[in-house]
Hints:
By secondary structure, this protein is of the alpha+beta class. It has one domain. It has 4 helices and 4 strands, in the order αββαβααβ. The longest helix is centred in the C-terminal third of the chain and has 23 residues, at 86-108.
Amino acid sequence: INRLSNNHPARQHPDWVVPYGGKLYYNPGIPEVKKFITEGALEIVQNYDIDALHMDDYFYPYKVAGEEFPDQKTYETYNNSRFTNIEDWRRNNVNELVKDLNTAIKQEKSYVKFGISPF
Length: 119
């Protein structure tokens, strides 16, 4: 994280990111992260004449041998007993983010298409 510029969002909010497999990932289990991602997408939709916004690799990363994705604390903080296991909770985080993005984009400019490429 220290290699990022001082004004990088991950430096300003280190609690929003988790290290995993030698990379940093925004933690979509944190509501502020979902809001940050949605606002970033909206900035593009609002300020550029685009026909579509395409998102790639929107899901949790593939498992790294011998390493668990470090979001257990986030699960315990934000789950509110809605999901009995972390995998279902993670899927719901992704579903909520996709839904929020689509809703925000369509409210801003109904003609802008929103697409996702999972692989």
